[in-house]
Every structure is written in C-alpha cells, then in structure tokens.
Amino acid sequence: MKNxxxxxxxxxxxxALWAFSEAVLGGIxxxxxxxxxxxxxxxxAVVVISLxxxxxxxPRQILKSTFIVVLVKFIVSPYTPITAYFAVFVQGFxxxxxxxxxxxxxxxxxxxxxxxxTLSGIQKLIIYTLLFGFTFWKSINLFYQYLLDKFLSxxxxxxxxxxxxxxxxxxxxxxxxxxxxxxxVAGKLPSWIETYYSELKDRLSLDSSAILKIPPKGKKKAWWxxxxxxxxxxxxxxxxxxxxxxxxxxxxxxxxxxIMVIRAFFILFLWLKVLLPVINKLFKKYLEDRENKYSxxxxxxxxxxxxxxxxxxxxxxxSGSQKGLNKLKCFFSIIFIFLLKYEFE
Length: 345
What we know:
With 345 residues, the chain is mostly helical.
C-alpha cells in the first residue's frame, strides 16, 4: 500500500465505506446476533455523512452519496426490507438538511447524530403502536401492577409508576445519548485522524493476504420464527391468561387482548402479503431504471469491499494496545487514516 493517489477521491472512499457498512457489515453483525445492529449502523452512518460534508464542503454530495449507497445495498443485499432503505434515505436527507444551513460543523454533526438515531428509535415505537395499539402499553402496566401486588405486601408508590412510559423514556434516552456520542465523534474525527496519522504513519501497513472472511449468511427466519416475536406473543399469552383467571386485572381486558392480537395478525398479513410486495416491486423498478446512471460508481464501490474488510481487521489489531474508549478512538481513527490517506497498490 502506498500514499493515496487522486484516482479515488476521499468522498468516493467515504461513500464506499458507508455502502460497505450497510450492505456487508450489517450482515456480519446480524450473523453474530448483535442486538443493537440498527443503533450501531445508524451511528456509523452519522459519522460517515458528516465526513462526506467535511471533505466535499457540498451538502448536495450527501444526497448523491445516499442514492449510491441505496443502489449498492440493493445490488449486494437485494432481499433487504424496504424499511432499511427508508432509514438510509432519512439519514442522508437529514445530513443534507443540517449541513445545508451552514451550521458549525461540530454542531451540525451532533444535531444530525441526535436526530437521526432518535428517529430510528421512534420509528420502532410507532410500528409497535400501529401494530398492537395502545392496549399493548396498557398491558405492560397491568402486568407490572399485578406482579407488584403478588410479590410485595406493600408496594406503595411503586404502584403509581407508569412502566410503559418509563420503558419508552429509557429507550429514547439511550438513542439520544448514542446519537450525541456519534455526532461528537464525527465532529472530532478530522483532528483525531491528523493526530494519529502524524504519530503512526511510519508504522501503518496492511497485509493483503489477511483478507477478513465474511460469515456465511444463514437462512433468513420468517417473522413468526424470530425470538423477539415469540417472546412478544408469550407475553400476550401470559396477559390473556391473567386477564381470564384474575378479575383484578379488569373484566374487559381479556377481550381487549384478543382484539389486539387479531389486529396485529391482520395488519401483518396486510403489510407482508399485500402492500409490501407492491411497494418492493415499485421501489426495485425505480432503482433498476436508475442503476445505469451510477453504474461506474456502484461497481467501483463494490470492488473496494475486500479492502475495507482488511482495513477494519487490521485497524482493530493496531489499536489492540489501547484500552476502553481510547481503543475505540484509536480504532476508528486508524480506519479513516487508511481510508483517506492511503491507496492500495
């Protein structure tokens, strides 16, 4: 590997890295059953989008990069659900919006991080509410109050806690904190890159024989086979049983749970069997019609994927002497040093 030549620009490399994280790294995280894959990919997208603006000084470049990333994701992972494409579009549009108004780079990065990551969390809450209705949140509170009553002789003020509201607040707080951290890192990365580059440039090298292997993709599970769905419906069954056998939980609650479950199955059937196939068909036709326009960029990006796998693997090894947050800081800085400062032979 040698110092980077102008053949591939920094913005093109960043766009390629974003596409790699969405199309390949997401698959690796799913293979290892990482539970916060969406949170991680969203935060990483914030960092890359911010750097795309930093090195291009053009917010419209973010929109172009976003579309190319979606095209690559479509080609490499054609069975990706439509919601994943939507998430990428939202992240890119928000990036364009915040940097378009000439806000300070670090401030815009933090605002982008908080907004983009929090919206991804809100999206999941909206989906659950549309799917199960407000009965879902009421059921959590009733189940919580039932457990308190059975296991505590004097629950006191604990009975007044709105557990569903507490869960939602905690869930969104985690997204806000992670989003702030992602934006903060994006704002600091340019200076970190220069600092580590001046310290390590004579020691950095890549062994091209050490290509990272991608775990083979397993068969995708249907929605009713996923652990989260099974746990959710076991919870509903427990509430149903308690509602039927324990009058303290309310006479009408058993009927409400039955209606909620029927509603959820009906909405899922309508979405998966009627609406989603039509939307997927239209969306894929839209992408196929525009694939030729960006065909050179798309194939150039895909050809770089083996390099990125190697960069991620080697950066983790080089940062091995660091501990805690310093290890993460060094790890991400070295990734972008390889990405922005060097070119493969």
